[in-house]
Amino acid sequence: MSSHKSTNIDDLVEFEENIELPITNKTHKIKKSSSAKLSLQKKQKLTAIKSRIKRATAKKRISKFMKSTKPQRQSAFLNAICSDSGICIGFGKENKKIKEFFDGFSFTYANPEVIRIGSTSVNGFVNEISFERLGYKSHGILKSAKQRYSDNLFYEYIVGTYFINEQKKYFPCFVETYGCYKYKDTNAYNEFEYNNSDSITKKYKYKTITDMQNKLIPIKGFSDGLKESCIQPTNIAILIEHVKDARSLEHMLFYTSEFHTDDLVTTLFQIYAPLSHLKDNFTHYDLHTNNVMIFKPFQNGYIRMHYHFNDSDIISFDTRYIAKIIDYGSSFFMDPKNPEQNSKSFYDLLCRKKECNPKNKAPCGVNDGYSLFNPKNVHNYILTSQRNMSHDLRLFRLCNKNTPIIDKIIENIVYNGDYGTPEITENAFNPKNGINSSINNVTDAYDILKSIIRDELKYTNYDFASKNKQYYSKNSKLKKMGDLHVYFDGREMKYESI
Ligand SMILES: Nc1ncnc2c1ncn2[C@@H]1O[C@H](COP(=O)(O)OP(=O)(O)OP(=O)(O)O)[C@@H](O)[C@H]1O
Ligand SMILES: [Mg+2]
Fold first, then answer.
1. Chain centre to alpha carbon of residue 363
2. What pLDDT, in 10s, does the model give residues 386-442?
């Protein structure tokens, strides 16, 4: 053992034989008898190795500890930063962490109970599912279909996961899609549908989460989902973000006196600013007052919203309401970062799937809730596989609530029927014409709302800024809770609470 190499090995062997690994907090001893025999050089090497191993072992212990306590730490963090998960999810704050904490909202952390929201409609029914882990809670909405011809929920899931979930990082007006499932069998479907059909809100409890999980099978992958969606469209259910204490815009307009003219202006602005930005990439095609939910994050508080068009062009206003668009089952989409991912390519794949097109001829999927993709049979100008930047003005037209400024704009919206209109790509809003401008498409809608908020709209003496200030920042009963920044240059939205 005379070579330099073997001396090192000697050192190590001796070291391992004589050092206690730092399993506990005890100090680590080297046997005096053997250390005395070591040369000075050996001693130095030993000390170096000892401290290296000590560091490595400590690192391993810390990492083991961190791993085993990760859920607790995550829970403590979320409770401190996002005590109300509904608010954080609604503002896109710590969204990723919350989702990860609940294992992607798989049913692992679901409570085994199903709570019905509303009653079964012509198209389907909606249940609320609650999630809980280490005392931290969140909610989801499980949406199911009733009719074979209702918009296919698998497509709604695709719009969500391929388009909306990304846009939701930037714009607060969208809701996230979490998952897609199929009911195990008719019994499972019936349990979720009938559990409380005779009352407004009632719970149905399963004995264990496994009992509930057994009823819903996760869809694995695109191809499997597409196939299942055509075999039995009503068997599909999707899990989406729950809009906390949601009221529809319809309800707010006609039954809530506190929802005043300014709130309607800013609600429409929250919708049409993103829709204008995405006019080539997204058309909702079913945008009406029951497909916009109004989220009121704070009982007695408001938020200051800032829309940053670029660094010098910012629109700010106060509001207690965040508008959320739901129900993407008829929507056209084209992913801006990946344009070949779009509704048309979805339709092409659908037509190649034998379960969706058994006779291998168009119209494919027509009896499976995919009829709005068929270019040969278009009703109300809805063609899911194609953009229409005028169609979503339908919502604006339905906001007729005897608020003179909005009603005046509605008079000038160019719209062909009650449920749809052909696309007009030319913009008509002209600041010179002010309130008398024609409104041809979502960009015109956004432009006119922007000029109201900036108090620049001609031929009207409506003073938005002072009214907004009067109602919110000068109202002693309402407290400012935070600032929400929305950007149009690719930066994700940011919520800063006070
Ligand atoms: N994410 C959500 N958060 C809270 N409530 C929701 C959510 N999604 C849906 N709802 C409630 O369920 C209802 C029906 O949902 P949705 O509009 O998506 O389905 P639909 O297919 O249009 O059914 P319907 O024919 O009843 O409108 C909504 O009007 C709303 O009351
Ligand atoms: Mg709806």
1. 32
2. 999 999 999 999 999 778 899 999 999 999 999 999 999 999 999 999 999 999 999
Task: Name the pTM for this structure.
Answer: 0.86
Ligand 1 near 156 CB (within 6 A): no
Element (H, E) at 110: none
The reported pLDDT for the residue numbered 16 is 37
pLDDT of residue 480: 96
242 lines ligand 1 (CB under 6 A): yes
- Ligand 1 pocket, mutate which of 115, 143, 174, 178 (most atoms under 8 A from CB): 143
- Return the domain boundaries, the chain: 4-76, 82-244+341-354, 246-334+387-498
Q: Which residue stretches of the chain have pLDDT < 70?
A: 1-38, 195-202, 360-362
From the CA of 326, the nearest ligand is 1
Residue of the nearest CA to atom 4 in ligand 1?
243
> Nearest 5 degrees, angle CA 204-CA 207-CA 211?
95
| Tens-digit pLDDT profile for residues 347-356 | 999 999 999 9
Query: Does ligand 1 come within 6 angstroms of the Cβ of 243?
Result: yes
Cα-Cα end-to-end distance for the chain: 70
70-85: b (≥16 Cβ within 10 Å) or e: eeeebbeebeeebeeb
**Residue 147: CB within 6 Å of ligand 1?**
no
Contact residues for 144 (Cβ-Cβ < 8 A; gap 6+): 124, 125, 126, 127, 153, 183, 189, 192, 193, 234, 236, 237
**What pLDDT is recorded for position 229?**
97
Query: What's the Cα-to-Cα distance from 138 to each of 70, 84, 95, 99, 419, rounded to whole Å?
Result: 18, 8, 11, 10, 36
Please count the other Cβ atoms lying within 10 Å of the Cβ belonging to residue 332: 25
What's CA 181's distance to the chain center, in Å? 18
Give the whole-angstrom CA distance, residue 240 versus residue 118.
16
CA distance 414 to 447: 15
R_g (Cα) of the chain, nearest Å: 29
